[in-house]
Amino acid sequence: MEFAQGLTLILAAFAMGHMAGFFYTWSQNVMPALRSSDDRMFIAGFQALDRAVMNPWFMAGFVGAPLLTGVAALLLLGQDDRSAFWWAAAAFVLYVVVVGITRSVHLPLNAELQAAGDPDRIADPAAVRERFESRWVRWNMVRTVAVVGSFGCLLLALVQFGRAT
Amino acid sequence: MTSERWRSAVLILATLTMGLVSGAFVLYSHTVMPGLHDTDDHTFVAAFQSMDKAIINPVFMLGGFLGALIFTALAVAMHLRGDGRPVLPWLIAALVLYVIVVGITFGVNVPLNDDLKAAGDPDHIADLAAVRDQFNETKWTWWNDVRSVLSTAAFGCLIWALIEHGRTLRPMPRANEQGSASWSSRKASR
């Protein structure tokens, strides 16, 4: 039991750390870089990255992080000391927020930007960008704070797990 | 704060920043470079130049790239003595792995980045294809994959170090037990 608890918690922290780094890099590096480019460049650049992001590595992390965190939390319920459980449960809840924001804000915006088509053929690229950028960036900040918080909770869960075993 | 708490805080910060920076390398490996690979030369050069400029900011440097080095080194220094010893081998492994990552960054990736930046505004570059060729996407990407693997391994070492660190902490006394008695019996049974 202790082995299963430790293993899922370690894998959850792994996946969550990479997801935190993922959103953190979008908010600290990718979006600030695109901000300074002109409208057509912005659209072309974002479309290219959005097409590339649907890869198995990313999907494994995006889906694996909550699954592993949820399973780890359930298994940790079996410990007498509930500290690790509560941190893992908090991490799970924060990541649910991340998934909710992604589904209701980012995925529709991404789909809209892809639907605008080849940026060289868009009549009014400034309008397309206008509808997209500020909302995407604002909610990405929220997503980043939530996922880094979730990651931090799992690190505290690891310490508590070590202390209790 | 007690020294135990300082150790916990620094170790958690090291793991946090290592997780973030390894996630950044991995993002470049699986999304940014493959995504840019499919774009035309102008978009590639312009996008890479602006990403390279944007990544040099205090939040990313302290919260990621340099933070991971500083906090991991600090964690090693704080565990050199006494009851920090069981954690030490994992911290040293993480530090060595990450020092290699920093070495690759300054030895391979930064010089390539600088050459691309030196080419100037892509609107004024006569032969964009040649500039892109010279940047050597294949080389940059290959070494970035190495950085992803090594920093992820360092991250794994720190995750394990957190558990080992937790083991050195005194467990909370249970309501129906004497705290010190339970701790010494746990220690003896290990």
Report on the structure:
With 165 residues, chain A is mainly alpha-helical. The longest helix of chain A is centred in the last third of the chain and has 40 residues, at 125-164. Chain A contains 5 helices and no strands. Chain A is elongated. Chain A starts with a helix and ends with a helix. Chain B has 190 residues and is an all-alpha fold. Chain B contains 7 helices and no strands. In chain B, α1 packs across α3 (58-78), α1 (3-37) packs antiparallel against α6 (137-168) and α4 runs antiparallel to α5 (128-135). The longest helix of chain B is centred in the first third of the chain and has 35 residues, at 3-37. Chain B is elongated. The two termini of chain B are 28 Å apart. At the A-B interface, α1, α2 and α5 of A face α1, α2, α3 and α6 of B.
How would you concisely characterize the structure shown here?
Chain A is mainly α. In chain A, 87% of the residues lie in helices and 0% in strands.
